[in-house]
TrEMBL record:
Residue spans of biased composition, Basic and acidic residues class: 89-99
Protein name, UniProt field: COX assembly mitochondrial protein
PANTHER family given in the database record: COX ASSEMBLY MITOCHONDRIAL PROTEIN, COX ASSEMBLY MITOCHONDRIAL PROTEIN HOMOLOG
General function of this protein: Required for mitochondrial cytochrome c oxidase (COX) assembly and respiration.
Lineage: Eukaryota, Fungi, Fungi incertae sedis, Mucoromycota, Mortierellomycotina
Keywords, alphabetical: Chaperone, Disulfide bond, Membrane, Mitochondrion, Mitochondrion inner membrane
GO cellular component: mitochondrial inner membrane
Localisation per UniProt entry: Mitochondrion inner membrane
A UniProt-annotated Pfam family: Cmc1
Keyword Chaperone recorded: yes
């Protein structure tokens, strides 16, 4: 029996979020388009689009969805479809890239 490490859980959560964003892309785009040219007025001017976006994302990132993803990952790991060491190397590279990007954006911009 394999217990997920924190790094594995983070990768799976990021995967879950990426999948949700992909599925909700049209709704996210509507919200983004609504925000163009607005500053403070986004709060009330794009309220409907924001609620729709959050509803879509929340519907696809439930604990049940995360549990399904974990089970699938563990099954793939048991069947040899997932290289645990490779997954850790890829995550480390992604983390290093993200650190470089955040540094290049300057202070306060993330």
């Amino acid at each position: 029996m394999h217990i997920l490490t924190r790094a594995e859980e983070e990768v799976l959560f990021k995967t879950l979020k990426a999948n949700a964003l992909k599925e909700c892309d049209p709704v996210v785009k509507e919200f983004v388009e609504c925000t163009h040219g607005k500053l403070v007025t986004v709060l009330w001017g794009c309220r409907a689009q924001h609620k729709a976006m959050n509803k879509c994302l929340m519907a696809l990132t439930t604990q049940a969805d995360m549990d399904k993803l974990k089970i699938q990952y563990l099954n793939d790991l048991a069947e040899g479809k997932v290289d645990h060491a490779q997954l850790q190397r890829e995550q480390k590279l992604k983390d290093e890239e993200n650190k470089k990007k955040s540094k290049s954006n300057g202070p306060g911009v993330h």
